[in-house]
User: Which sequence fits this backbone?
């Protein structure tokens, strides 16, 4: 069976080359100093920055898919969450309200916030809702850039439990984190990024 | 009624107002008298030169020369469009986008007006073609540079939102559409304001000029109305083309947002 995700000789102007192979339910946890290329790596997998090399999902190559189709199967959630409409709920147009409610509640986000303007959310609430937004379409791979960066201990625990549950159902995860303990808890493979290169940790 | 022709003496009397301004500046220590003198002299020289150029080109009455002058005007306008935005493309894309949208909007509107409404014989008669192209260009320049500035500023600011949509599987077209819409709207505001204010707050320049030159007010009004329609057409076309071209230049075959093409 082909791996869930295979990265071969992926490189950009400022980072790489990278190679990585993830089975279903695997999590590659990447730590490393700021500016070492962790986000660039995730952005290249998601095809957001110009890059060369190959990425395969379950035996299908990226180049054989249109970019939007690719990105919706390997969803990247940035460290700074992005919003494009006024109301929170407008960012979930592809999902049913009950799904959004249920998943937000699991991450400790009050249901009332979904009807609030984005401007009223705290950074932590935005971060959790961005994660809900990335998980709901059920992508094969999640590319998470410091998903728990601005969160308190209790929220971190809720997010990690949810991620572990997704991994148990086969979702592969590439996780960038500043917290070595989190890398330990979630990562089935662990790497350090140094100067645009990935090293096993 | 024939126009009242001005003599140099008439103009010299009006020039005394500039002297008055300069005197005020000295008296009130505004330190503007130098700038005022330079600007006034520049204005006089530039206008006299263009007067001779136009007289010369009218006398040649050669379509190729007329076209050449209009093309030079378009290129100067395109340079202005390219230079205004705070954020710019690397390389020459700003100028190319400016040139394409300004020339497209100007030629389409001017040729439409010359061949259907004003209809001089022949339609490219420089007496009509050049002033008309000039007026349209001024407006088109304004719209295109407002739209371009607004688009490039917004795209920078909205990057996280645009990329979040791309990451969830939206096409570049969907993700960028609200910004393109806002940029086009921004480019159309000045002409909408101009039309709303025309006749109440302002007497538009062309109309005033024609009335001073002895034309019946209603005839002048008709010209002005025609002109406003032309200007809004030109504004719309240039705002539209400049925004779509800039949006297109900021993406690639993989539907990425290529902000690395800006500096």
Assistant:
């Amino acid at each position: 069976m082909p791996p869930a995700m295979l990265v071969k000789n992926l490189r950009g102007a400022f980072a790489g080359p990278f190679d990585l192979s993830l089975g279903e339910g695997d999590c590659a946890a990447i730590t490393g100093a700021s500016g070492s290329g962790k986000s660039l790596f995730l952005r290249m997998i998601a095809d957001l920055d110009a890059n060369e090399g190959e990425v395969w999902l379950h035996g299908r190559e990226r180049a054989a898919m249109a970019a939007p189709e690719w990105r919706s199967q390997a969803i990247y959630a940035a460290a700074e969450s992005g919003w494009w409409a006024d109301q929170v709920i407008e960012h979930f147009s592809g999902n049913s309200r009950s799904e959004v409610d249920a998943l937000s509640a699991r991450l400790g986000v009050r249901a009332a916030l979904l009807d609030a303007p984005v401007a009223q959310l705290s950074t932590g609430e935005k971060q959790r809702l961005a994660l809900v937004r990335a998980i709901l379409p059920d992508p094969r791979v999640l590319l998470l850039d410091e998903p728990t960066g601005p969160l308190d201990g209790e929220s971190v625990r809720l997010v990690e439990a949810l991620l572990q549950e997704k991994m148990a159902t086969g979702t592969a995860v590439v996780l960038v984190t500043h917290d070595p303990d989190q890398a330990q808890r979630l990562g089935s493979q662990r790497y350090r990024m140094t100067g645009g290169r990935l090293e096993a940790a | 009624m024939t126009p009242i022709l001005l003599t140099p003496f008439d103009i010299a009397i009006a020039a005394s107002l500039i002297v008055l301004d300069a005197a005020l500046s000295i008296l009130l220590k505004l330190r503007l008298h130098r700038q005022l003198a330079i600007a006034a002299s520049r204005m006089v020289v530039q206008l006299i030169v263009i007067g001779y150029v136009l007289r010369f080109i009218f006398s040649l009455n050669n379509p190729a020369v007329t076209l050449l002058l209009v093309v030079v005007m378009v290129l100067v306008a395109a340079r202005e469009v390219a230079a205004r935005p705070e954020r710019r493309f690397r390389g020459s894309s700003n100028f190319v986008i400016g040139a394409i949208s300004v020339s497209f909007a100007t030629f389409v509107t001017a040729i439409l007006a010359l061949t259907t409404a004003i209809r001089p014989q022949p339609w490219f008669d420089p007496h009509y073609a050049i002033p008309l192209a000039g007026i349209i260009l001024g407006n088109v320049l304004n719209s295109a540079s407002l739209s371009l500035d607004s688009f490039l500023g917004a795209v920078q600011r909205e990057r996280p939102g645009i990329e979040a949509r791309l990451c969830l599987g939206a096409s570049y077209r969907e993700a960028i559409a609200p910004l393109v819409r806002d940029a086009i709207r921004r480019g159309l505001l000045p002409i909408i304001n101009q039309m709303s204010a025309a006749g109440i707050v302002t007497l538009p320049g062309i109309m005033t000029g024609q009335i001073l030159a002895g034309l019946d007010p209603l005839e002048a009004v008709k010209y002005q109305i025609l002109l406003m329609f032309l200007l809004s057409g030109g504004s719309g076309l240039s705002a539209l083309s400049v925004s779509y071209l800039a949006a297109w230049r900021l993406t690639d075959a993989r539907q990425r947002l290529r902000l690395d093409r800006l500096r």
Summary: Chain B has a mean pLDDT of 93. Residues 63-261 of chain B form one domain. Chain B is about 75% helix and 0% strand. The CA atoms of residues 77 and 141 of chain B lie 6 Å apart.
